[in-house]
Every structure is written in structure tokens, then in C-alpha cells.
Amino acid sequence: MPKRVSRDYRKTTPAKFLSFCQKVKRCLTDNPNYPDSVWGGNVAVRQQLFEKVDAIAVSYGLASNGDRILIRERDRLMQEIMTLLDEVAPLLESASVRNPDALLTTGFTISQERRTHSRTPKLPLTSPTDFTVVNSGDPRRAIGSATAMPGALNNEIQLNRKDPSLEEDWFHKAIFPDARNMVMDNLEPGNTFFRMRHHGQDGPGPWSAVMSATIS
Fold first, then answer.
1. For residue 196, what pLDDT is reported?
2. Percentage helix, strand, coil, to 5, in the chain?
3. Within a 13 Å sphere around the CA of 34, how many CA atoms are in the beta-carbon half?
4. I need a surface site. Which of 1, 3, 19, 184 has the fewest CB within 10 A?
């Protein structure tokens, strides 16, 4: 059965969360299974995660005196890191299709689904059929939308500014928790192609049809 990154980091104490984040940072630093060529356009996401982990180590220490303002700042950083971890997890899973054991070197908790004869089958994730993208009217911003799908944990959008028929021209934009409101900022002006897919417990589903929008 396929190995998957567990999202158990969302249900832990601040102390254990800090220890987990520092472990992930150590494991992903110069990891030969995930060189820069694997991360591609998402190297910045990895770097942002590393910087936030350093920041929360400081914030955790400051908040240990019980100051409510410092605790709120620590908790805010935790939420930001969880969002980044939600982006990194499917990237690692996608890069490990041919070598699932590589996930064991990432620092994440790795789960392997065990099926039994009495297990109720899950409905597979299907391609989003009503995915749309519109120019929001604000500079360099667009909004994607699709119907939420049962079993989907989050939703991924990729961009293409060249040839949508070439797989190598597509690159990851972001992971969104709500398929009905996927706001994309810092886009390059001009015509851009978009596609999306749902991510579930067993990994990503199929891509939607390609959409296009002109970014102002």
C-alpha cells in the first residue's frame, strides 16, 4: 500500500510541534532524496518553512513566561507553519512516487494504509468539473473556485504561462483548504493557464480541465 505523509502535526502540543518542526528542517536540509531540482519552483516554500521554524523556536522560548501576547504570537506562527507544512506534504508525496521509502527521511510521520476485508471502500477523488478562475480586478490577483469534494483534505492549483500541453511547463502555485475560495496573489500579468486537483488521505486526484484568465 502507498506511503503517505500524516497530517498529525495539527494535533499536538506547542512543545512537541516545535520538536517536530525542527526535525523536519534537519531532515530536509541537504536531503539527497529531495535536491533543489526536485523542489523546482517551490524552493522558496521550503526556505520560508525553514525561516518560520527558526522564528517559532525563539517565539516558543519567549512565550514560556506565560505572557498572553507572546503566546498569541507563538500560536500565530504555529498556524502559519501548519499551512506551509500542508503545502510541503503533497510536494514530497508527488516527488516520492517512484521511491516511497524516501518519505521516511523527511522527518514527517509516514502512514501506510492497511486494508481489511471489512473496511468500507472510500469514494475516489474525481476531477473537478466546475473549476473556474476569474480576474479579481485587483492587480496580480485571481480567484479560483470549484465545488468542495467529500474526502478532500485540501486543493492544489498549478500554473502555466507557456504551453499547457507540456507537462514540464506546469508549476505549483499553492494549496488551499477551501476549494470554493482560492485566492492567488503575486501573479504575473498576462494570459495564464490554471488547473486544480483535490488531495485526499490517499493522495491527489486527477487534474481538472485547463482554464485560462488574463491577469491585470
1. 95
2. 40, 25, 40
3. 28
4. 1
